[in-house]
Structure formats: C-alpha cells, structure tokens
Design a protein that fits this description.
Strand content: under 5%
Number of strands: 0
Number of domains: 1
Structural class: mainly alpha
Helix content: 55-70%
Largest sheet: none
Order of helices and strands: HHHHHHHHHHH
Radius of gyration: 19 Å
Oligomer: single chain
C-alpha cells in the first residue's frame, strides 16, 4: 500500500456534485458553483502555511515517534521519554490523553489545533480497530498490542493517510459552513444547508478519503528514509507536510477548474 503510485485521481464523484446535493433545495447553479469554488479556494489557501503549522508538525512527529517506538526495547518507556503519557499497555485511552498533551499549544491556530487533535485521535481509533479485527480473524485472539507492529513504512503510511483524510474532512466541513453562511440569502436556506451537510457526511468523508490517496506514492518511502533510525527533525517533517498537502492542493485546484 505504501508504495502505490497515484497521480491525479479519477473523478468518480465531482466536488460540485456533492455541493449540489447540499444546496439542491435552491436549484440555483450559480450558488452551487460559488460555494464549491469558494470552499476549495479557502482550503487551498490554508495549505500555503500548513507545512509550518506547529500543530500539524506535532501531529506528524507524534505518528513518526509512535511508529519508531515499536523498534525499541520498551515501547511505553520510550514514548513517555518523548513526551507521551502512556500506560504500560499503550491503551487507546492513554494514547488519546497523549494527543491532548502532545499537541497542546498557546501560540498556534486554535482552529487548526482542534482539527489536528481530532483527526489524529480518529486515525488512532481507526488503525486500532482495523488491526484488532485482523488479529482476531487470523488467530482467534492476540495478546500483543497492535502498536508493537508499527515500525514500518506501511504502518506509517496507513496512519498518516487516515490522519490527512480526517483532517481534510474536517477542514472541508468547516469551510463549507463558513462559505455557505456568507453566500446563502436567508436563514431558512442556511438551516436546510446545515441539515443536508449532516446527511451528506458519507459522501464528503468518501471524497476526502479518495483525495488522501494521492500521498501514498511517497509516505512510506519518506518514513523508511527519514525515520528508520530516529524520529526525524521538524525541518524534515515540514518538508513532508509540504509535499503531502502540495499534492492535495493541486488536486483541489483541478476540481475547482473542473478538470
């Protein structure tokens, strides 16, 4: 999975068709186009500085540290030395608590910080659930922690793609609501839009999951190059973020242009 080569994504579900569902009650194609284009403009503009955002760098450092810790003699002890607050079993609860502590900030954007925290927690939950299910199917039960097997580029790629997809999903919803509030002409339309936004959860999540595939061509290779022997410095993590969100930004540019 980590070495899957993906260029531009096929347009199985155009972004404007999702927005059309959100504002279908109005039937105004100009409104649909405006909300779609302005939402993508906002999210693409946010990517200009995201590679240098403290919360995003901390989130990727969290994942590289978690993966690298699996190669240590004592995973829990190593993680706690790196600023985590895990228990000896590396329970999901203790990892969630570690996310809150590790990504705490008094200087970074609180909006990005909240989205990064929530996305990182979701990535951990998704990874644990999917790998526990595999373990149960293979062996009936498994006593080893799923986190003890993450010292690979494939594991990092899976966790990071899940994080990026979840983060992008939250960003799209945030900007959709903000753009719609400034575009729709009356309160009843905004209420209807908000209800449709909830109803379209699966479509938006599926869309952002597809978009996040674009980073699979280099995520595992990056981890194997920069994290095989130690957690990489923030400068390397920043370059990773720049590559990842640069590719996603270009994909959204194509969607805005209808390509």
């Amino acid at each position: 999975m980590g070495h899957e080569r993906i260029g531009f994504l096929p347009k199985t579900k155009q972004w404007q068709s999702i927005v059309h569902e959100l504002v279908k009650y109005s039937g105004d194609s100009e409104v649909i186009s405006k909300i779609a284009e302005n939402t993508l403009y906002c999210i693409r503009s946010s990517y200009n500085s995201i590679a240098y955002d403290e919360s995003m760098i901390s989130a990727i450092r969290f994942l590289t540290t978690l993966c690298f810790s699996a190669s240590s003699d004592s995973q829990g002890e190593y993680l706690n030395q790196q600023g985590f607050c895990t228990d000896s079993e590396l329970s999901l609860f203790s990892l969630m608590k570690s996310v809150e502590q590790y990504l705490a900030t008094s200087t970074a954007s609180l909006e990005i910080n909240k989205m990064a925290k929530d996305a990182l927690m979701q990535a951990l939950v998704t990874y644990k659930q999917s790998h526990e299910t595999v373990q149960l199917k293979l062996a009936g039960f498994e006593s080893d922690s799923v986190w003890s097997k993450t010292a690979t580029g494939a594991a990092f790629c899976e966790l990071t793609r899940s994080f990026v997809a979840s983060f992008t999903d939250r960003q799209l919803r945030y900007y959709l609501e903000r753009v719609a509030a400034g575009t729709l002409s009356n309160y009843s339309q905004l209420v209807s839009f908000t209800k449709e936004l909830t109803a379209q959860t699966n479509a938006i999540t599926s869309h952002t999951s597809e978009v996040s595939k674009i980073m699979q061509s280099f995520a595992a290779g990056w981890y194997n190059k920069y994290s095989a022997r130690t957690t990489p410095p923030d400068s390397d993590i920043s370059r990773f973020l720049s590559m990842a969100f640069g590719k996603i930004k270009e994909e959204f540019r194509r969607e805005a242009a209808g390509l």
